[in-house]
Design brief:
Shape: globular
Number of domains: 2
Number of helices: 9
Helix content: 25-40%
CATH class of the largest domain: Alpha Beta
CATH architecture of the largest domain: 2-Layer Sandwich
Largest sheet: 6 strands, mixed
CATH topology of the largest domain: Ribosomal Protein S5, domain 2
Order of helices and strands: EEEHEHHHEEEHHHHEEHE
Number of strands: 10
Length: about 270
């Protein structure tokens, strides 16, 4: 049986926009955390086969970031050509780093096949060339991102095991328009120190522009914040997925049931942070 990697769903516990760079990218400060669940990726003989509830949304997969990651890996390190099977469980254009997480999982699979360290400096550099979120997704551990978000340093704090509910109103939210709609006001730095405390004190500066584009994102946040036992509710990345950290598993389960009953068309994932 071929090894399988989880492409862990990425969450931005906080996301502070600090400015726009001359190259068109933005200077950000963010705290990355990862859920225990996500897409599932396995090596195959050739090509890219797509299954799962959101596999059909990726078309024929020819321009998928998994394919680009495998091509970049082979161009840099050589080795046999690889195919992949992707079980796409996460919605696309959802603020969960799905494509970046898939690419990172592909790199981890190829490193395992070839006996390479997936966190070696040359792998991190290769990941950065694929996208700003890919280096963080390569490790899929609590971390702080600066610059474009691709300059990664370890973050301190114990978030592993925290119950978290992800909710998406089934509205795709392409990153470009949300960043473009940001008002370019620097509202201050992300706190140093404990990641959870910094998250509570922080914000997501892209929430307002995302809500301006898709007001239902504000509805999701209001619903999450109304649940008992919620410690923090925030949009992830550029949206439209929002998350809530719960006091305990029982509160998470109750919130999940309530939202499922009241909003059956919304996608949900009840999980824990890694």
């Amino acid at each position: 049986m071929q090894p399988v990697e989880t492409a862990y769903a990425k969450l931005n516990l906080a996301l502070h926009m600090r400015g726009r760079r001359a190259d068109g990218y933005h200077e950000i400060e963010t705290l990355f955390a990862f859920a225990e669940d996500g897409d599932r990726l396995a090596l195959a003989e050739q090509g890219l086969s797509l299954t799962g509830p959101f596999g059909g949304a990726l078309g024929d997969g020819t321009d998928n970031l998994i394919v680009r990651a495998a091509d970049a890996y082979r161009a840099r390190f050589g080795g046999a050509e690889a195919g992949f099977r992707l079980d796409k469980k996460l919605p696309i254009a959802a603020g969960l780093g799905g494509g970046s997480a898939d690419a990172a999982a592909a790199l981890r699979l190829l490193c395992a096949r070839d006996g390479r360290d997936p966190l070696a400096s040359e792998m991190i550099a290769l990941a950065a060339g694929l996208g700003a979120d890919v280096p963080a997704c390569l490790a899929s551990t609590l971390s702080r991102g600066v610059g474009r978000g691709d300059e990664i340093v370890a973050a301190t704090g114990d978030v592993a095991g925290l119950p978290v509910l992800l909710v998406n109103p089934m509205v795709a939210m392409p990153t470009g328009p949300v960043f473009k709609a940001w008002d370019q006001v620097d509202r201050g730095a992300l706190d140093e120190g404990d990641a959870l405390a910094a998250s509570f004190a922080g914000r997501n500066d892209l929430e307002a522009p995302a809500i301006g584009i898709a007001p239902v994102v504000g509805d999701v946040l209001a619903v999450l914040r109304a649940q008992d036992g919620v410690r923090l509710a925030r949009m992830s990345g550029s949206g439209a997925t929002c998350f809530a950290l719960f006091r305990d598993v029982a509160a998470l389960a109750a919130g999940d049931r309530a939202i499922a009953a009241d909003h059956p068309g919304w996608w949900r994932m009840a999980t824990r942070l890694r």
